[in-house]
Amino acid sequence: MAFDGLVISNLVYELNNTILNTKISKIAQPECDELLFTLKGANGQFRLAMSASASLPFLYLTEHNKPSPLTAPNFCMLLRKHIANGRIVRIFQPHMERIIHFEIEHLDELGDLCTKTLIVELMGKHSNIIFCNSEGMILDSIKHVSSLMSSVREVLPGRTYRIPATQEDRLNPLEVTEDAFMESVLTKPLPVGKAIYSSFTGISPVIANEICYRASVDSDMPAAALDADGRKHLYHNFAWMMEDAANHKFCPNIVTSGREPVDFSCFALHAFIDESSDKTYRMTEYDSISRVLEEYYAAKNVYTRIRQKSVDLRKIVNTALDRSRKKYQLQEKQLNDTEKREKYKVYGELLHTYGYGLAEGASELSALNYYTNEMIAIPLDPTLDAKANAQKYFDRYNKLKRTYEALTGLIKETADEIRHLESISTSLDIALSEDDLVQIKEELTEYGYIRRKRSDKKAKIKSRPFHYVSSDGFHMYVGKNNYQNEELTFQFATGNDWWFHAKGIPGSHVIVKARNETLPDRVFEEAGKLAGYYSKGRDSDKIEIDYLQKKNIKKPNGSAPGFVVYYTNYSLTIHPDISELTLVES
């Protein structure tokens, strides 16, 4: 994600236009690595949220409050002691780094005016929030970094604050000349994109790729391979973007794939929405970088949290899938070996027919195969007569025949098990809440993949199918897992409702309530997009969808939940982009 120096520049510009000269009314620490300031000024009240989380560090203005622990942590108490009721007098970003300094004026215990600095470093796993006095000495930090943890820089009370030495050899992109750009970027033995972001502070790989895209340059090509025109064009696009940054001409946006956030930036990311891309991305522009950050991190947190919560279930499913696939391969190999059975049967019959003249001790019999009218050579055991050799081949035939009959049923069972597990895996990809996982876990327990303890009670199911409304007002429902698919298709849907499913791959059942009306073509397309998006093929450019009326759907006896058969259906091919569809509830 592109939380780079350019985004910080946009954020600092926004903060200077909103919370500069505001008074710090409240300081809270809702999480161990997170702070929430309530600020009051001439323009009203603001909330400033900041986090030094290693996975999702952030800082933005928000309208939402967050509950705090009854006993404030030590760092929060220290900030309250020193800067409660203080005034933010300066906000700046040093050298396009991913760092924001807040200079705060306050009265000390003697009533004298003092200045303290709160430094927020938004640098991935090295993120931190550091509190310093006017001389730059660290009073405390939200994370302590000792010499045992880092040989580069200690962050401990009493130490002098030093800016992280992560980008000392990089240039400030707002100050670079054309000659410096050519020398620093185009002489490196690196791909163009990497040469750009490794030469300048504040530029992420996403922005470097965007600059290359705007210059019609392949970001993966060697920098030294650019011709004179390509170099000029690359520099001009770089300079135009930096000029926009210097003049605060930003375009905050979020790029999504379906409903999942993919990236964000303060400049339009045209490279993502290139028509030649394999995936479909949608870019939504906002009037505030704080709103971008809040929405992005809120949505990203949902996906990140649910994936963390589902790790154990995914491990169970993947382990069972691997075992079933290996078993299926072994069974297929054994089944292929049984293809010789008919040959052995023919050998036995031909020995009965022509074996009367067989010489004693013969190791082979040449005979006419009356099934194919060809001469064949039948290998013999020279210690046995023709009748015994024939019986030996009939025994082999019968053994392979029994094996074939047994394996045919076993292979079908294994294939059904693989299909069932793949459908559960797809359900885990679709899940958005812990309630969704509860129903999936219940299915795994019911089918023996998870052992139910005696003390465990059957889980209470709160998860409900997705509910969409089409552009023409028809209600569309999407099952999140096999139980919901089963319920939607065989209990909720009526005979004339329409049923949609991605062809030949695991996915959700989509039901469109027809209301005994003829559906417009657009409804079929929108329902098809839902069936494609909520399937294993959601990242495909095109996906084939089967659809038919519910009355033509059948469920085989004893089959797993959500498994259906049908013989007469229509098909359509769609691009699974649901970004414009209206989700009512889930």
Polypeptide structure, described:
With 586 residues, this protein is an alpha+beta fold. It contains 13 helices and 21 strands. A seven-stranded antiparallel sheet has the order 20-19-17-18-16-15-21, with helices on both faces. It has a five-stranded antiparallel sheet with strand order 5-6-7-8-9, covered by helices on one side. It has a four-stranded antiparallel sheet with strand order 1-2-3-4. Strand 1 and strand 2 form a beta hairpin. Helix 8 runs antiparallel to helix 10 and helix 9 packs antiparallel against helix 10. The protein starts with a helix and ends with a strand.
Which secondary structure elements does this structure contain, and how are they paired or packed?
Blueprint: H1 5-16, E1 23-31, E2 34-41, E3 44-51, E4 58-62, H2 74-83, E5 87-92, E6 99-107, E7 113-121, E8 128-132, E9 138-141, H3 178-185, H4 192-197, H5 205-214, H6 228-246, E10 253-257, E11 260-265, E12 282-285, H7 289-309, H8 311-337, H9 341-354, E13 364-369, E14 374-379, H10 386-430, H11 434-446, E15 466-469, E16 475-478, H12 482-492, E17 498-502, E18 510-512, H13 521-533, E19 543-549, E20 570-574, E21 582-585
Antiparallel strand pairs: 1-2, 2-3, 3-4, 5-6, 6-7, 7-8, 8-9, 10-11, 10-12, 13-14, 15-16, 15-21, 16-18, 17-18, 17-19, 19-20
